[in-house]
Write a structure and sequence with these properties.
Helix content: 40-55%
Number of helices: 11
CATH superfamily of the largest domain: Bordetella uptake gene, domain 1
Number of strands: 10
Strand content: 15-25%
Largest sheet: 10 strands, mixed
Shape: globular
Structural class: alpha/beta
Low-confidence stretches: 1-23
CATH architecture of the largest domain: 3-Layer(aba) Sandwich
Length: about 325
């Protein structure tokens, strides 16, 4: 073997050794710059609130700022697409919600894959939405709504923030399992829908705990049931829909994801930061009005959860012929 070849092989060996040493070192140094959490909604909503509360705690553990980046539009698709196409280095994350598992059934050509485009980090929290009616409504129970909807198909109206939103799917699931048909009235947001509900122009609505709790407490709305499998401590004495309609369950949830291909060591460090953040009483205090149960699950639990939920809602979308116009 010539001296030139020997020197070449030696150089390659040194380079390989250097790479194998420097790569773990680079991962150990993560993060050495701010981490961004993309919120695919406008500022001020529940997802924004949870993300900001989480970011405060994560930044303390990571030793770097955690910046909240609001990128609303197209039912969360714009923000999700941006993150799916980001460099998988752990510096760009996304807070996904219920829309993440419904969009694949509503949009035939998503610019990303829910299963292949993202790496799960942690399920942050889950909580119920609340079935509410005006305080002077004749509906006193879920059974009252079902009986009226069966006697008068299509005449019970419910308000939503649009087709495919959690408020819409909560009602569609009730239609599906109870064998009834109600009529959706879409609005541009929860606020206008609640205004019409209070004014008696709608009959029922599924709202987040944050949106309806004060209205229930002040006697302007009546909470008939929560949508979670178990009763919610945030609404003591309010039954679950599942007590009337077996198998019914829908929850608001928040899950943190990185782009697909993010190194496991980086995911582990991000997950550890989440765990530390939610352990802090300050986090629970910041989100207490959301009526959420804090999870801080493993990445695998979040991945399995998304897979199950996507299949479940695909069935509802198909059977109820739900389409985005």
């Amino acid at each position: 073997m010539s001296s030139i070849i020997r020197r070449g092989l030696l150089a390659l060996g040194i380079a390989a050794a250097s790479w194998s040493v420097s790569t773990p070192a680079a991962l150990a140094a993560f993060p050495d710059q701010p981490v961004h959490i993309v919120v695919p909604f406008a500022p001020g909503g529940g997802t924004d609130l949870v993300s900001r509360a989480l970011g405060v705690g994560m930044s303390r553990y990571l030793g770097q700022p955690v910046v909240i980046d609001n990128r609303p539009g197209a039912g969360t698709i714009i923000g999700a697409t941006d993150v799916a196409r980001s460099k998988p280095d752990g510096y760009t994350l996304v807070m996904h919600t219920f829309a993440f598992v419904v969009n694949p059934s509503l949009h035939k050509h998503l610019p990303y894959s829910t299963s292949k485009g993202f790496t799960p980090v942690s399920l942050i929290a889950r909580g119920p939405t609340v079935l509410v009616v005006p305080v002077n409504s004749p509906f006193r129970s879920v059974q009252d709504i079902i009986a009226t909807a069966k006697a008068h198909p299509g005449q019970v109206t419910f308000g939503t923030q649009g087709v495919g939103t959690s408020a819409d799917m909560a009602a569609e699931l009730l239609d599906n399992l109870a064998g009834i048909k109600m009529t959706q009235i879409p609005f541009k947001g929860a606020g206008p829908a609640l205004t019409d509900l209070l004014g008696g122009h709608l009959q029922i609505m599924f709202g987040t705990a944050a949106a309806v709790s004060d209205l229930v407490k002040t006697g302007k709305l009546r909470a008939l049931a929560v949508t979670s499998p178990e009763p919610s401590p945030a609404f003591p004495g309010v039954p679950t829909i599942a007590q009337t309609v077996p198998g019914y369950s829908i929850e608001a949830w928040y899950g943190l994801f990185a782009p697909a291909g993010t190194p496991p060591a980086v995911v582990d460090k991000l997950h550890a930061a989440v765990v530390q953040a939610v352990k802090n009483p300050e986090f629970a205090q910041r989100i207490q009005h959301e009526g959420l149960n804090i999870e801080a699950s493993s990445p695998k639990v979040l991945g399995d959860f998304v897979h199950t939920e996507e299949a479940r809602w695909h069935k509802v979308v198909e059977e109820n012929h739900i389409e985005i116009n």
